[in-house]
């Protein structure tokens, strides 16, 4: 009898090969997934690192700002806190040397304010008012970009009488603060000659500014002359040269 035809083994081999290839593909896919997951887990996170860096920088800036504000409030207290209202000066308890240093720092600033006041008077005498540099250096209400050589952060008037803060009272006026250093311990500052002369003086700047804003140099100069006399009295009461022509003010 003839032998039955032999069946080809190719289809079976083909199925085995396909199954083996599928297994390899599954393994490769699994390996890729695992590698990608691990890579993402351990790779640097630029966005997160940037956020952390910004947070640290912001925190450092806040700390620096808070330190600067604390130093400013300590070095230049407002007129409202220069006297605590209970009959004792804010300078009580300080050593003589520290009191002297505080007073000297205020005197240096006041001397610079007087120099700007003299420059204003000279400008008014020449008919110059609100458009002059001397006017800006005396009446400008805005804070300086940086303190000047004696530590003033505002123009002369704001430095002397104080500048507007968050509250209703003016802050940081060295004219009052200097006068308050002459108050005896246990006495209210209102009875101090230097404080009395200051209270008479600081009101005398308004007529100068009012006339100058209207361009009336003659009227502004007349008001300046009146303020100059009050300024001289104040300077004498705070142990500074009373004459505005003193070399300290030129």
Brief synopsis:
By secondary structure, the protein is an all-alpha fold. The chain is built from 9 helices and 2 strands.
Please characterize this protein's 3D structure.
This protein is mainly α and 250 residues long. The protein has nine helices and two strands, in the order H-H-H-H-H-E-E-H-H-H-H. It has helices at 10-42, 46-75, 96-125, 133-139, 156-161, 174-180, 193-202, 205-213, 217-237; strands at residues 163-164, 170-171. Strands 1-2 form a two-stranded antiparallel sheet. Helix 3 crosses helix 6, helix 7 (193-202) packs antiparallel against helix 9 (217-237) and helix 8 runs antiparallel to helix 9. It is globular, with a radius of gyration of 39 Å. The relative contact order is 0.10.
Tell me about the biggest sheet? 2 strands, antiparallel
Uncertain runs are 6-10, 32-92
Helix content: 55-70%
State the end-to-end distance.
140 Å
Strand content: under 5%
Count the helices. How many? 9
What string gives the helices and strands in order?
HHHHHEEHHHH
| Structure summary, number of beta strands | 2
Strand order of the largest sheet: 1-2
Q: Outline, from the CA principal axes? A: globular
How confident is the prediction overall: mean pLDDT?
A: 74
